[in-house]
Give the backbone structure.
Amino acid sequence: MNYTFVYEQVTIYECIVKESQSDEPTCPLKLLHAYADVDSDENFYTCAWTSDDVTGLPLLAAAGSRGLIRIINPVTAMCTKVRRHYY
């Protein structure tokens, strides 16, 4: 899975590797989830992959200028937790 983030939005993609006519595989992207923060003043500037301790499923932690860390579950397409980060 891959992600991009722009201002208040985080987008999660899956790269589907396919064999092509040439000997080089192609990798079309499939949109899995687009998360937009309710606050349009948010500016995400860092993301990191982790996994759920219980299920082992992937989770994406995203944080930005407001000091909130969001845990986004790409399997359920939900923001499962929000935590405050203090400087």
About this structure: The two ends are 30 Å apart (CA to CA). The CA atoms of residues 54 and 82 lie 18 Å apart.
